[in-house]
Amino acid sequence: MDAPFLTTSLAVLTTLSLLALPLSAAAHDFLPLKSSLVVEEYETNILQSSDGTFSSGFYNIYTNAFTFSIWYSNSVDKAIVWSANRGRPVHSRRSAITLRKDGTMVLTDYDGTVVWQTDGKFPNVQYIQLLNTGNLVLKNSSGNVVWQSFDSPTDTLLPTQRIPATTKS
Fold first, then answer.
1. Which residues 6+ apart lie within 8 Å of 92 measured at CB?
2. pLDDT band at residue 21 using 50, 70 and 90 as cut-offs
3. How far apart are CA 96 and CA 106, in angstroms?
4. 27-151 CATH
5. Which of 41, 43, 74, 77 has the fewest Cβ atoms within 10 Å of its own Cβ atom?
6. 156: buried, middle or exposed (CB in 10 Å: 19+, 13-18, 0-12)?
7. Is the pLDDT of residue 15 over 90?
């Protein structure tokens, strides 16, 4: 076998192998309408900003307890910058964050109890996106932000985050 043929064959096999990887293992910066992130896959089922600075998903705070949070992706201790349910963690089984068809983002616990949700319904919402600023947003069909985590600050302010006149939780 000649070297060019072998090199080409290896390149094709490598490419096909990478394409065969499960899509759920890849981090994306968005979650489409009627989709969920589930707690059981907290290590791989995350959102990541397109530049890789921030990640969002289920964060394990202690045994069987999770928050839905945003953190610095490359910090050793995963420094949290925002949490939806800081005072009320969810269980390690059957909990999910879902973008419902009515445009609300809802965090449910193992028994279906709503632990946290965005304020209001946004019928034209198409997806959740984690921006490079660390802001988690809901965007409508025109690409406009209709809800953002920056309007519900916790104990950390990020460089481009402004403190709103009234805050929401």
1. 39, 40, 60, 63, 64, 65, 66
2. very low
3. 8
4. 2.90.10.10
5. 77
6. middle
7. no
* Model confidence band, residue 149 (pLDDT cutoffs 50, 70, 90): very high
Helix (H, G, I), strand (E, B) or coil at 35: coil
C-alpha closest to that of 83 among 95, 96, 67: 67
Q: Which helix (H) or strand (E) holds 3?
A: helix 3-19
Inter-residue contact 169 to 152 (CB < 8 Å): yes
Q: What is the mean pLDDT of residues 84-93?
A: 95
63: left (phi over 0), alpha (psi -120 to 50) or beta: beta
Whether residue 81 is predicted with pLDDT greater than 70 in this model: the reply is: yes
Tokens 């995963």, residue located: 78
Average pLDDT in the 88-109 region?
96
Buried b (16+ CB within 10 A) or exposed e, 82-92: bbbbbeebbeb
